[in-house]
Amino acid sequence: MEKSNSYGASWADQWDYSNPDPVHTEDPNKKKSGTSNKYGKKVGEGFDKTKAVASTGMKKVKEGTTLGFNWVKEKYNKRNQKN
């Protein structure tokens, strides 16, 4: 009579690399439904909008950072010219 532990798999089963678990693959001949195509287009459109908004936001950040650095530079130069 074999004893089994409460975890279901023995230590040897958990660390057995000689027989790895099978890899799940999709059947390449299986047709995809039309609904995923419809949602794919919507996701693509949403991605394009998000990309445009992010690009605009980054341009604004870059401009603001440039203005900030120039302001600090001007203040520094004015202060050093007095001395």
From TrEMBL:
Region: Disordered, residue numbers: 1-45
Protein name: CDP-diacylglycerol-glycerol-3-phosphate 3-phosphatidyltransferase
